[in-house]
């Protein structure tokens, strides 16, 4: 018997066993039935290694074996497919792949190591236990997949570290059902691979698997969901949505991607839809050219995975009472809270808003519209501005629609805002009837169900609804946290309120301490040291509130040092120290910018936040400043030549307005301050 070899890193996992070496390594006599010399091999146990007969092949296992054998399309060399069957021992239920059929095309050592470890592993599916991907799929009856297992935590995927040592990157688990009994899950099918190519290839493989299994009265959930017959009413409703989304992604510079979800055929329970499929998406051509969104795993995953009520921003909009939901950090969801979380992280998507609507053309059928927005500085972004513009466009474009809660677009609306805190609170933006779109909020715990939340002990029993000064001059509710008169958390106020409790989930678990030890080094060098790409390093920095890499901190106290000190404070600030934290941050700001001590608190100043492609800058101008001064400041900060760019803003109707002269700038300030906004948002186009 061959000695047990173990992965030692490097490329050893890509080496291959001979068939004899593989059979000896698995420590059992295997029956090998190649379906095609150039296709793949199906394995199962013929006899146990000790000479005793193995447990009899179950009837389900036999059908899985035949289904894998009949599979005619097996495109990747580096893929392992293995079946986990439900077993019961001493009254406890668990999944096991020991003695179950599995398939390989090439006998890579890494996949062999992974298979060997799995045969010694049991996955409990008992209520209250840590399930892992296999258990979650069996219990929930929904597929789960990840473009890279490094996005998982150990708790989410107990075999994560072993999978990484074996070279596994892409991971997918599919529930297996009896063809005629959709509720009877008989096990799960696991697919693992070294390959990180597009999910579309996995999707095609899954369709082939589903076709092969149907012959043996098995199926994979959703693999051939019948599209609903498109009635004339559905066609009219979708036509309105398509026109609106086209307008949004082509005319608003901060929404590069929008999607529409409709009820999934055959997936409703008691007349209430809890499962949706994507019917349409629109993508900004310029943004797609830079980030290749259309070809991304994320959009394919949205086709493969159905929208589930209560999951992610769109799912919470579907199942919540108010039918609107916003989150500025969707990458912070874990995979149980948002099945597409790993794909969103890979696509660098962060800010999302969703609304659930109904059309007069189709009665009570829900339509969930999901918008992804370009993130600026997380602490500075004003969600009111983004949501106000979208609601304005929808009010004008979607004439046959109303909010699924029964409210009319343009009436008072509450927007649930998901923040990652340990409190069982909820956040809402409110549109008051006296103003066009002023907003208020209360916090929301992403772990709590979207339709019902009970405040935890010590939290506010009745979270405050905050009204903002708008065109009618309303006041800010006195129950608002001090120092936050705008209804969203910025600067020191956010540090004081969420510094200790916010859950940081950087994509590959890069801690702040890991980053801190490399401050002052070139960004590319640090990425190489940590073994990640520069884009991954940037995402990790953003997750720790480091908005710019401090590459020269040893030489001078520059703005990056200010950002780094803010990040350090965010790791352990208690609510009782909020005033002290605020004072500390203001002191740092003053010491780094001594020339602004007086002007900072002058009432004749206004704040400008400018977005240019993926960059965002923020500065203050005097009310007496004109277009020449504004363009000079923009050119200096964005390194653009004055005269080579245009500046726009969005008015109260969400329409882009070009700034060309001093009068345009004054009108811009008057318009946005009338909406209760304290920051003027402009967009720079070249």
Summarize this entry quickly:
By secondary structure, this protein is α+β, with helices and mostly antiparallel strands. The chain is built from 20 helices and 26 strands.
Observed structural traits:
transcription, Beta-Lactamase, DNA binding, disordered N terminus, DNA-binding, nucleus, 686 residues, alpha+beta
Question: What does the model show?
Answer:
With 686 residues, the chain is an alpha+beta fold. It folds into four domains: 209 residues, Beta-Lactamase, CATH 3.30.450; 258 residues, GAF domain (Beta-Lactamase, 2-Layer Sandwich), CATH 3.30.450.40; 85 residues, no CATH class; 82 residues, Roll (Ubiquitin-like (UB roll)), CATH 3.10.20. It is built from 20 helices and 26 strands. Strands 1, 2, 3, 4, 5, 6, 7, 8, 9 and 10 form a ten-stranded antiparallel beta sheet that branches. Strands 11, 14, 15, 16, 17, 18, 19, 20 and 21 form a nine-stranded mixed beta sheet that branches. Helix 2 packs across helix 6, helix 7 packs across helix 12 and helix 13 packs antiparallel against helix 18. It is globular. The N and C termini lie far apart (68 Å). The N terminus is likely disordered. This is Protein NLP6. Keywords: DNA-binding, Nucleus, Transcription, Transcription regulation. GO terms for molecular function: DNA binding; DNA-binding transcription factor activity. It comes from Sesamum alatum.
